[in-house]
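Problem 12. The chain below contains 175 residues. Write out its predicted structure in token notation.
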Amino acid sequence: MHLRRKFPLLFACLFPWLACNDTLPQNREMERENLKEKLIRVNKKFVRNQLNDIDAYIARKGYRMDSTETGLRYFIRRTGMGSGPASHNSVRVSYRTELLDGRYCYSSDSLGLLEFEMSYDEIPNGLREGVAMMSEGDKALLIIPAHLAYGLTGDAGCIPPNAALVMRVELVEIR
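Solution.
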């Protein structure tokens, strides 16, 4: 008899906890979705602001550049005589990399020509996209937004996180 009295009390104490535990995964999922939406909004705003900064840079310099759907800005400064690379090709590129504020990062003069496969993931998407539009012998000016460059991590201390890059590139050879 003593046990019968305690069971309803125990159930009354545990029921709210059990009820909360049933909705906890649903609440966490909703919180996760809300956080995801907020991060997407913040990221879109950052990209929009950076593209505005890039446009201001282009205007200050008086460049006439085209833009891709991804946000890459490019201008083919000199047209070569060769053909363009395919996704299975390897390319050799002469380059100079700077930040929008003019700070030098690195170049092929100090590090040698950059050689990579067009399908290689370790190369920034913006560089690969720009080189894909070039022909052998072309020289181009690329302005690569952070989301197409080194993003949130930067690169080995030379390129800070969230930095847009100004690259002067020559497609020296396609293999």
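Discussion. Strands lie at 66-67, 73-78, 90-99, 104-107, 114-117, 139-144, 165-174. Students who got a different answer should revisit the alignment rule from Section 12.3.
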